[in-house]
């Protein structure tokens, strides 16, 4: 549940595939919901420069003086979200959409056929994201949970399986189709949705997502690739784990990223730019 670092070499290969296949109209149509519903509230549109707190380790600690919190959707209650709302915060619901987790209450909803290789985190295995008919209702129920607890947005994690050794022959086109489906599920529920990492596919996905969440773009000299979100007036919530703030904050301010230094466990500790 902490910092997800993509496989660098695989993603470089996937970039080429994304460029060749990323704009497919058929991929986008296949992700359209069978029937759309009108959200009961306006979708929140976070603007560049908003300070934030990202805490995935346990129930939320509301002590950070920032306008945005990103917290675990399962481990926090509607009362926790309401507490943050009373303090004037917007709250993002962390949900893993790319890997099965054996510690989640809905773990038995996933058929064995969609479970792939371990992803390097204890109790987690990659999902076969090509199986839209199987995964869509599971993710809909997870996003229902976020909506019903009062969250304003969703952070869907692990949306770049195509660049990793998942055990399935996933392509960039498969990932685009799945990610667009995930964005649609959020929007149907009146939830804002962020694109987590997946830098090579930003040009094809920026119009479908309301903000971005990024890990370690400074370490890999990739922060400029997030500029389409900023140009569209959409926030980029960014963390580094090992780079000193002196090595990335000046560039982050220039690019209008919402940046901070965090420990990989994603507890309460934070050092913003």
Automatic annotation (TrEMBL):
Pfam families: Glyco_hydro_114 (PF03537)
Location of the Glycoside-hydrolase family GH114 TIM-barrel domain: 52-266
Protein name: Endo alpha-1,4 polygalactosaminidase
Lineage of the species this protein comes from: Bacteria, Bacillati, Actinomycetota, Actinomycetes, Kitasatosporales
């Amino acid at each position: 549940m902490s910092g997800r670092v993509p496989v660098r070499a695989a993603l470089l290969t996937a970039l080429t595939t994304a460029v060749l296949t990323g704009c497919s109209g058929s991929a986008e149509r296949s992700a359209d919901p069978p029937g759309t519903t009108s959200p009961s509230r306006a979708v929140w549109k976070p603007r560049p420069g908003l300070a934030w707190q990202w805490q995935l380790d346990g129930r939320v600690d509301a002590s950070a003086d920032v306008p945005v919190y990103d917290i675990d959707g399962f481990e926090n209650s509607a009362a926790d979200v309401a507490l943050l709302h009373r303090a004037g915060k917007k709250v993002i619901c962390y949900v893993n959409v790319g890997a099965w987790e054996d510690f989640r209450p809905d773990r038995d909803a996933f058929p064995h056929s969609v479970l792939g290789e371990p992803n390097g985190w204890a109790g987690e295995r990659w999902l076969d994201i090509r199986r839209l008919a199987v995964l869509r209702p599971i993710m809909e129920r997870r996003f229902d949970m976020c909506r019903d607890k009062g969250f304003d947005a969703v952070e869907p994690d692990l949306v770049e399986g195509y660049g990793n050794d998942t055990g399935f022959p996933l392509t960039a086109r498969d990932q685009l189709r799945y990610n667009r489906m995930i964005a649609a599920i959020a929007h149907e529920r009146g939830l804002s949705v962020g694109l987590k990492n997946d830098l090579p596919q930003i040009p094809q996905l920026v119009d479908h997502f309301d903000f971005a969440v990024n890990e370690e773009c400074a370490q890999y000299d990739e922060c400029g690739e997030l500029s389409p979100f900023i140009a569209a007036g959409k926030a980029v919530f960014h963390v580094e784990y090992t780079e000193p703030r002196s090595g990335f904050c000046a560039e982050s301010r220039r690019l209008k990223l919402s940046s901070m230094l965090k420990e990989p466990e994603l507890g309460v500790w934070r050092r913003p730019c």
